[in-house]
């Protein structure tokens, strides 16, 4: 530095500037570096960003979205966030830099994913949420979401019908940052809690994961061997719970209730081994998202911010109507 | 005073000036704010959606006003017989891609039976039971969706929208069903307005299961 007398002032200014700008500079830096390695934008490309592919239900959601986008003439690629918001953010940066025309998005976190959607919106890339919502109504173009609460109310009513108004049960929660986890839990409890002699002895998260549900329920059975039922927030956890009950020799008298409508659970309902589930319609949601994205790209702008998709109760009485992640005719 | 001392003082003065300048800048452009934990919690709670308050004003305002425009129960049942899909389209409200439509329905009829779980009503003299009002815990979205006044897209998340149904159902249990249970007598007339859900798959229903907003004994 040529002016030693100014050095303190310059250092102070640089220090202040560095502190102030550090919070703003990161995105630009990352985007710039990504842009340097980004492939050339293609004419028609859609990205499918899915929370996890470690669950057959989400595989169906993602692959249906991809296949439908391809059917509409787009190149479509699936990005697996592996239930990790950091990976999801990295996918979005890559997608933005790569010049995709739309994102069909299954978020990992209702709050945490909002920033990613806003970043895409700022880059003029429309985002269409599938199954799970984000906690913002001005970021995504449209959110095609499962009506989890109403579905869980129906499961709760069936729970009381089959288990009775008295008994002990365990609940397996999904990801605690996901709205669907709580919509299902609250819908279920809005019914079951009306019957005070139905006692919940355990409420633990198994993160929508079959293997974790197996571990969690094994632990629950150690301390509560006399439960009458299990309510699992998704079918993967219902399968894990059922597996734990089979291993403990209790599968015949502990009723398991799930949510999703996964093929293996539908099969077990038909065999009267699982009591009931709520059928979501991943194919309907994925197709609607892909079609909406195509319409947006072709100029349509008036989309409802949220389109709930009904969840239907599946029991032994109507199980023959369902299969392949929807109604038989779907 | 030596030249070295003078230089040291000048350097110290420059550092003090720099630090003071930085302090002034930070004072006017603070890098962060310190708030009390209690204050932050109160602010966060105030920002939370209060479904009970919302429903209270919705019930006494727009919902009661809409009861005067409810579709007549007999007319609705007759229209279902004529053309189920067109009737659902004309009178019903559909939430997203759901398998049922919801309605706000009014009517007057004669109480046929008062049972532990339901009050049943005939709309035509000597006719069959065409309206069922269940007594006991109320579930579902018949009033929220049947009113046609609440849009899911207006709410930040589905939990808030779902909380409306829970609160509406509580009001029905606390404010409507007790007067029905206390006053319902077989043979008496009953005037009613309420929400109804009708599934797509069952075709024209023989009777409507109604969640009441208003019950009166004329």
Notes on the structure:
Chain A has 330 residues and is α/β, with parallel strands linked by helices. In chain A, 46% of the residues lie in helices and 18% in strands. Chain A has ten helices and twelve strands. Chain A has helices at 7-37, 56-71, 85-98, 114-122, 148-163, 179-192, 210-223, 235-247, 263-270, 282-297; strands spanning 45-50, 75-80, 102-105, 127-131, 142-146, 167-173, 198-205, 229-232, 255-257, 277-279, 306-309, 312-314. Chain A has a six-stranded parallel beta sheet with strand order 2-1-3-4-5-11, sandwiched between helices. In chain A, helix 1 packs across helix 3, helix 2 packs parallel to helix 10 (282-297) and helix 7 packs across helix 8 (235-247). The longest helix of chain A has 31 residues, at 7-37. Chain A is globular, with a radius of gyration of 23 Å. With 218 residues, chain B is an alpha/beta fold. Chain B has two domains: 3-34; 50-216, Envelope glycoprotein gp160, DUF2291, alpha/beta domain (OB fold (Dihydrolipoamide Acetyltransferase, E2P)). Helix content of chain B is 47%, strand content 22%. Chain B contains seven helices and six strands. Chain B has helices spanning 3-28, 37-47, 51-66, 73-82, 84-91, 142-146, 158-183, and strands spanning 71-72, 100-114, 118-122, 129-134, 189-199, 208-216. A five-stranded mixed beta barrel of chain B has the order 2-3-4-6-5. In chain B, a hairpin with an 8-residue loop joins strand 5 (189-199) and strand 6. Chain B is elongated, with a radius of gyration of 31 Å. The termini of chain B are far apart. Chain A binds chain B through residues 5, 7-9, 11-12, 15-16, 19-20, 110, 133, 135-137, 144-145, 147-150, 153, 156-157, 179, 182-183, 186-187, 190-191, 194, 281, 284, 288, 304-310, 312, and chain B through 10, 14-15, 17-19, 21-22, 25-26, 29, 31, 95-100, 137, 139-141, 152-159, 162, 165-166.
């Amino acid at each position: 530095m040529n002016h030693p007398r100014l050095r303190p002032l310059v250092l102070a200014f640089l220090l202040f500037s560095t502190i102030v700008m550090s919070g703003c500079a990161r995105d630009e830096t990352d985007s710039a570096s990504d842009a340097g390695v980004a492939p050339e934008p293609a004419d028609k490309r859609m990205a499918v960003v899915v929370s996890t592919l470690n669950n057959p239900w989400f595989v169906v959601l993602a692959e249906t979205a991809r296949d439908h986008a391809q059917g509409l003439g787009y190149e479509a690629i699936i990005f697996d966030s592996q239930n990790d918001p950091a990976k999801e953010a990295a996918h979005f940066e890559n997608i933005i830099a790569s010049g995709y025309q739309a994102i069909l998005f299954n978020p990992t976190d209702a709050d945490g994913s909002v920033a990613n959607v806003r970043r895409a919106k700022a880059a003029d890339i429309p985002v269409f949420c599938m199954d799970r919502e984000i906690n913002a109504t001005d970021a995504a173009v449209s959110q095609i979401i499962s009506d989890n609460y109403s579905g869980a109310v129906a499961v709760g009513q069936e729970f009381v019908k089959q288990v009775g108004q008295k008994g002990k049960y365990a609940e397996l929660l999904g990801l605690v940052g996901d709205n669907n986890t709580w919509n299902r839990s609250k819908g279920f409890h809005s019914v079951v809690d009306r019957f005070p002699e139905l006692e919940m002895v355990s409420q633990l998260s198994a993160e929508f994961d079959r293997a974790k549900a197996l571990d969690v329920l094994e632990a629950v059975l150690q301390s509560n061997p006399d439960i009458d039922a299990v309510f699992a927030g998704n079918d993967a956890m219902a399968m894990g719970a059922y597996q734990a009950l089979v291993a403990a020799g209790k599968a015949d008298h502990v009723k398991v209730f799930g949510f999703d409508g996964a093929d293996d659970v539908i099969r077990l309902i038909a065999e009267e081994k699982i009591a009931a589930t709520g059928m979501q319609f991943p194919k309907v949601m994925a197709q609607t998202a892909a079609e909406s994205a195509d319409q947006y790209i072709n100029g349509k702008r008036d989309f409802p911010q949220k389109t709930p998709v009904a969840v239907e109760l599946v029991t032994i009485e109507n199980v023959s109507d369902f299969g392949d992640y929807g109604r038989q005719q779907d | 005073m030596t030249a070295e001392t003078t230089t040291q003082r000048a350097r110290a003065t420059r550092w003090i000036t720099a630090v003071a300048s930085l302090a002034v800048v930070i004072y006017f452009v603070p890098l962060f704010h310190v708030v009390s934990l209690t204050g932050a919690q109160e602010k966060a709670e105030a920002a939370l959606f209060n479904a009970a308050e919302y429903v209270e004003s919705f019930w006494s305002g727009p919902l009661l006003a809409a009861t005067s425009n409810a579709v007549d129960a007999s007319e609705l049942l007759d229209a279902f017989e004529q053309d189920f899909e067109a009737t659902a389209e004309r009178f019903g409200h559909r939430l997203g891609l759901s398998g049922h439509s919801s309605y706000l329905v009014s009517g007057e009829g004669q109480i046929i039976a008062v049972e532990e779980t339901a009050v049943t009503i005939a709309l035509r003299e000597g006719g069959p039971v065409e309206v069922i009002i269940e007594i006991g815990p109320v579930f579902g979205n018949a009033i929220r969706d049947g009113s046609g006044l609440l849009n899911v897209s207006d709410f930040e998340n589905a939990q808030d929208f779902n909380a409306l149904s829970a609160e509406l159902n509580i009001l029905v249990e606390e404010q409507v069903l007790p007067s029905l249970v206390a006053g319902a007598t077989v043979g008496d007339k009953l005037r009613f307005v309420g929400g109804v859900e009708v599934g797509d798959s069952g075709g024209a229903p023989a009777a409507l299961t109604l969640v009441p907003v208003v019950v009166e004994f004329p």
